[in-house]
Amino acid sequence: MITAGQLRAARAHLDMSQDDVAIASGITKSTLSNIERGVTDGSLRSLDALKQFYERQGLQFTDDDGIKIVRSDVLSYEGVAGFNAFMMDVIETMEKNPGTYCVSNVDETNWLRWQGMEQATKMRDRIAAIPGIRAHILVKEGDNTTFATYAEYRAIPSDVFYNNTSHYMYADKLALIRFTPGNVTVRVLHNRDFAESFKLMFYRFWDMLAVPLHSPLEVKKYA
What we know:
Residues 7-61 form the HTH cro/C1-type domain. The chain is α+β, with helices and mostly antiparallel strands.
């Protein structure tokens, strides 16, 4: 069983707050705090959620009450907790590597549906607070709804927009995202060559497209 000491060590290694780990793993902060302090051993569900989260970050828990760093070039995320963990990875990666990230084939209602307005707003505001952050986002032609206040949007013609599949290029990572009615799956390739090649194709489109009109997000539409 994972121990409180291992969980504290894993979180310290990633330099993450309890708030961030709780959001990314899908448990409450109070539950995480109690487990880390040894107040409770934690339920199997909570421990499994934490184990999966830390393994996605390249950490394994060893039998001698330690942790082991296991770097993987491919990370997988799934469901609400997984999607929040992926977005947390975007935030932390951009905090360490401020600059411009790119997202193509975006329907932002998917982000709001899987994160919820409150969580999506918190993450958006945290990204917006990163010094020097910029985002270039390609949306479907005719979609004038924008959510990322720090981003520039341009429109893809509807005949080449592929619904419910998006690509995220941030620092040296490339994420492939697939939304379905009952699930969301994300595959992240931690490989600079893949990220740069997709970014090159992204900007070939970007440079040819017009900037769409921006309109305030209609919050009630997604409540």
